[in-house]
Fold these 4 entries.
Entry 1:
Amino acid sequence: MAKVEIEIERCKGCGLCVEVCPEQVLEIGREINLSGYQYVTVVQAEACIGCCRCAEMCPDTALAVWR
């Protein structure tokens, strides 16, 4: 099983990671970080296959995937 970690304060909520995730593990949350952005959250951690597409797509390197 893989694990996605999100650095909340680096995330700008662009949604690119959400779009490229083949298993719909991520979504834009309702909470706001200190910069005023709604950041990405993990909603289906058990579905993550560890493909790393989300981390590769993130322009702010706010995601890390651990296998």
Note: The chain has one domain: 3-66.
Entry 2:
Amino acid sequence: MAKCQFCGKGVTFGITVSHSHIRTNRTFKPNVKRVKALVNGTPKHVYVCTRCLRSGKVQRAV
């Protein structure tokens, strides 16, 4: 699974607890998109989470 190349957000693990209190493992996957962004002044394809896109940490290339 891809990681955000700006903040490092990746897959985390947790436990789902059912109504009968059966506990099973689960994964929380980040909302990561592959976008064309300006990295050091040149456009490159990078994996970026949507929070970094929304907050303006990443400048998209057109």
Note: The mean pLDDT is 94.
Entry 3:
Amino acid sequence: MKLSKKEHAVLTLIACGFTDKQVASKLKISIRTVQSHMTTIMLKLNARNRVNAVVIYMKLNPKWKIEERSVVI
């Protein structure tokens, strides 16, 4: 499933352990927008929760490695 650039950035930061508040601050968006993106991401990936969304996305995108995640930070 294809995520938008913003959804990809949100999921990447969530995967790195950032809170919604921290993600919002880093991406200069509201906390509500972060939550909205996560809802959309979970629907697109058919995930039960955030952790499941990260796991599914990692399986679908094997090149999505730790090195790539650190670039967003």
Note: The chain has a mean pLDDT of 89.
Entry 4:
Amino acid sequence: MRVLILGGTTEANQLVALLANDPRFDAVLSYAGRTERPTPPPIPWRVGGFGGVDGLTKYLRDQNIARVVDATHPFAAQMSAHAIAACAIASVPLLALERLPWPRMAGDRWIEVDDFVAAAEALGASPRRVFLGIGRMQLAPFASHPQHFYLVRLVDPPRAPLPLPGAELIVARGPFDLAGDRVLLVNHRIDIVVARDAGGDGAFAKIEAARELGLPVVMVRRPLIPARDKVETVGEVLRWLGHDELPAERGV
């Protein structure tokens, strides 16, 4: 079975590892290209967009793709929407592997907003020390609020100057742990955190650290994605593909 995996998440990598040595599957992994120097997977892979819905539809047909698994980041709404449209046109079954949102727990001081413009406005007029754990593509709205100090953590060094003059930059690749993020927030005297509701374990430490320190978190809700079939675990994807061996049975 020829399978296209739209990746960029830990769950996508787990799925790839399970399909790599199974002769029943001919899988290819597609990275969006947001992260530089991704770890080469054990299957054929590609980097970059497809050229919109039409380009993805052509790819599905030209490559004889039989199934598509959308395991992109929960905020990759455009790619997910393109996958829904292209799969419908090409009559290719699609399943989304979508991690659960983070649960709001006792002690959390979340200010929930719908987008990054609203997140920047939620910081208020008075100067604050802000930790931005949202990725490089969403920094621009905060440039209109230069009264704040911004601590920015990115996976890769930026190729161009940040749109936030005077911001302090940390380049680090997760997963991060509670102890490390707690020290980070304390040492930089952060008094508010901005995060996107990515779900998963890799970036949750900053939310836990903010809870322990009693700091407010401006939490950006996930973007809306058109209705699609979706599951929450790699095991469910394997069942959908007809794989008869679940991750738990192989120690994953």
Note: Residues 246-252 have pLDDT under 50 and may be disordered.
